[in-house]
Amino acid sequence: QVQLVESGGGLVQAGGSLRLSCVASGSIFSIKAMGWYRQAPGKQRELVAVITNGGSTNYADSVKGRFTISRDNAKNTVYLQMNSLKPEDTAVYYCTAEASSDYFQPAMRYWGKGTLLTVSS
Questions:
Q1: How far apart (Å, rounded) are the C-alpha atoms in residues 94 and 74?
Q2: Could you say which of 21, 25, 99, 102 has the lowest number of CB atoms within 10 Å?
Q3: Which string of b and e fits 27-66 if b means at least 16 CB within 10 Å?
Q4: What value does the mean pLDDT take over residues 55-84?
Q5: For the CA atoms of the chain, what is the radius of gyration?
């Protein structure tokens, strides 16, 4: 099993910056893509950004140019640097990873419990 633990959420004013972190632990053989999703009140969970183990990235249009995803493969950690935050970025942010626990197992999707970001206007 793989566990994901997010940190770094909180309350920030519009225009401010914050960095989220997510550490993967447990029985890890390899991690493919890691990423961030978010879910605002009353809305569906949506992709924010994803990064492959090779460093390729993809972003939601709503965060392009403001958010940057990165990862430290040696630490099994993914980060989300968020700049120029807007009230509409308010949501619970979930870390996700496609990971396998041994050579013979296919990668599975794991989720963290989420961290709340609130952006005040």
A1: 21
A2: 102
A3: ebeebebbbbbbeeeeeeeeebbbbeeeeeeebeeebeee
A4: 97
A5: 14
H/E stretch holding 90 reads none
Residue with token string 């609130």: 118
Q: DSSP E strands: which ranges in 1-121?
A: 2-7, 10-13, 18-26, 30-39, 46-51, 57-59, 67-72, 77-82, 91-100, 108-111, 115-120
Give the pLDDT of residue 60: 98
Tell me which residue has tokens 């914050």: 18
And the tokens for 104?
A: 């013979």
